[in-house]
Amino acid sequence: MRIVDPGLPHPKVAIDPATVDLGAVARESAFIRRVTVLNIKRGYVLANVTSSEPWIEVYPTKLNLWAGIPTDIRINVRAEDLPFRAKQQGTVTVSANGHAPLEIPVSAQVSLAREVWRLIRRAVRAAWPESGRAIKDTWRNLAHVAGTVGRPMARYNWIPWLLWLLAGAAVGAGLYYMPDWGASLLQAQGISRPQYWFEYAIPIILGPPFALSALWLVIVFILLVLSAYLARCEGPGNPSFDRNS
């Protein structure tokens, strides 16, 4: 047509967006972004799409650009092998005969914090069934132990009060005979060492149930961590599990 009418405008290619910045990412297998390529003038042009880095994949690699019809490029960024913290940069180039190449800068940076959070989420998802079973078994065992210990206490209701009294006395003695380095640790947490006898009352009364609650939380936390570790070692994420399955 241009031979018949040399005044026809040449095709002109435009890209949106002009850059692809993934920012801070984890080492996921792939991040997909789409870029729209459009011939904003009349005519037709065939364009080739290439990438400058092996961690950037593009599809399709050839574009048939008709006037006014947008075409999408899928940019696939594979971040699983990228180094930590260093910002990685590459370029996707759209080349067409008779036109200057159009470059699309692509950048990404593997964040250590995001990678740690990804691994934690993955471990929790993998360990949740195993953790649930372990918690049920441990709860059943604790209930059995509590029942065994609680039977004499139910028969002799003075035993819990005696235990509370002994634990409170231990707390009071620990505060009274606390070494200087222990007092310094308390002061660092904003807690002053008791100076008068009535200041010992609250720690002596509330110390035993608080310590028992803290001990229970520690047991539950250790249980979850151990269950997550066992599930990670024995679950689908373990290569030996994959080979045996």
Question: How would you describe this structure to a colleague?
Answer:
This protein is α+β, with helices and mostly antiparallel strands. It folds into 2 domains: 13-110, Immunoglobulins (Immunoglobulin-like, Sandwich); 114-239, no CATH class. Helix content is 46%, strand content 25%. The protein contains 5 helices and 9 strands; from the N terminus they run E-E-E-E-E-E-E-E-E-H-H-H-H-H. The strands form 2 sheets. A 5-stranded mixed β-sheet has the order 2-9-8-4-6. A 4-stranded antiparallel β-sheet has the order 1-3-7-5, with no helix packed on it.
Radius of gyration: 34 Å
Count of discrete domains? 2
Distance between the termini: 64 Å
Helix fraction? Answer: 40-55%
Give unreliable regions as ranges.
1-5, 236-245
Structure in a nutshell:
This protein is of the alpha+beta class and 245 residues long.
Strand and helix layout:
Elements: E1 13-16, E2 20-25, E3 31-39, E4 44-51, E5 56-59, E6 62-66, E7 71-77, E8 87-96, E9 102-110, H1 112-155, H2 158-176, H3 180-188, H4 201-234, H5 239-244
Parallel strand pairs: 2-9
Antiparallel strand pairs: 1-3, 3-7, 4-6, 4-8, 5-7, 8-9
